[in-house]
Design a protein that fits this description.
With about 250 residues, this protein is α/β, with parallel strands linked by helices. The protein has two domains: about 5-100 and about 210-245, D-Maltodextrin-Binding Protein, domain 2 (3-Layer(aba) Sandwich), CATH 3.40.190.10; about 100-205, D-Maltodextrin-Binding Protein, domain 2. About 35% of the residues lie in helices and about 25% in strands. The protein contains eight helices and ten strands. Strands 1, 2, 3, 4, 5, 6, 7, 8, 9 and 10 form a ten-stranded mixed β-sheet that branches. Helix 3 (about 135-140) links the parallel strand 7 and strand 8. Helix 1 (about 35-50) crosses helix 7 and helix 1 runs antiparallel to helix 8. The longest helix is centred in the N-terminal third of the chain and has 17 residues, at about 35-50. It is globular, with a radius of gyration of 19 Å.
């Protein structure tokens, strides 16, 4: 069952009021109340204020979220890679990125070293990635034999398997790994200190909001709002605000 949150901020003077109709249902692949959810709630709350449309987040696993888009249950997704729209013809991309993601391989083995991705073809390591992240899947499948490659549903599961030495490497976005490492359970585990980034697979990968093509005019307004918000430094301000609230940067 998906959980959600409705975001509709009061407009400032001169800004249009949020639409009175049903909020747009936007899919997100993180739990309600998580670090990323809180950050995106602030971002989308400000977008809502500026464009005059209410948004409601619904939390799903990546694969199920794609199915919900295809079924017409969701009106859009909070953040996806640039090429995601090629797999979802009913969506249009908001032509301004919302957050740039860093994709990496992580390990809990202090002795493990990896100079380049191509070394995975011959080093016998057990490699895993978070299910639904096509950038990980596409990078790893040509190099890692099927019997040494697996996937998991969440970053938490992937990190726990590293700590238990069931896998050698885990591929995910840093934006997913960071909050997973700060859960009470993980923070209380001494083995968490061994988890580290061993190889970057790409930095500053821009991700974009997507909305149903029937909202194409709204996508233009959202792009303009996001561009201005970034110029004002709000995206980074919101990130720092959430981390301060969670006590991460004290």
């Amino acid at each position: 069952m998906a959980a959600g949150l409705c975001l509709a901020s009061a407009p400032s003077q001169g800004q249009p009021a949020p639409a009175a109709s049903t909020p747009l249902l936007i899919g997100m692949d993180v739990p309600v109340g998580s670090y990323t959810f809180k950050w995106y709630a602030l971002i989308y709350g400000e977008i809502s204020r500026r464009v005059g449309v209410a948004f409601q987040f619904e939390s799903y696993a990546l694969k199920r979220m794609g199915l919900q888009i295809e079924a017409g249950v969701l009106d859009g997704e909070a953040n996806r890679a640039y090429g995601y729209g090629l797999t979802q013809p009913n969506l249009v991309r908001v032509e301004e990125s919302i957050v740039d993601l860093s994709l990496a391989l992580y390990t809990a083995n202090p002795a493990l070293r990896l100079q380049r991705l191509e070394d995975l073809a011959s080093n016998g390591m057990q490699v895993e990635y978070r299910r639904g992240i096509l950038l990980c899947e596409n990078a790893l499948k040509p190099l890692v034999p099927e019997d040494r490659l697996s996937d998991v549903a969440t970053a938490d599961q992937g990190l726990k398997k590293l700590m238990a030495q069931r896998t050698d490497l885990f591929c995910d976005f840093s934006l997913s790994v960071l909050p997973a490492l700060h859960t009470p359970e993980m923070a209380a585990n001494k083995a968490t200190a061994n988890i580290r980034k061993v190889l970057d697979l790409g930095t500053a990968i821009p991700t974009y909001p997507y909305v149903n093509k029937k909202y194409a005019p709204l996508a233009l307004r959202m792009a303009a709002a996001l561009k201005q918000m970034k110029a004002e430094g709000l995206i980074e301000t919101y990130r720092q605000q959430v981390e301060k609230e969670l006590g991460w940067n004290q």
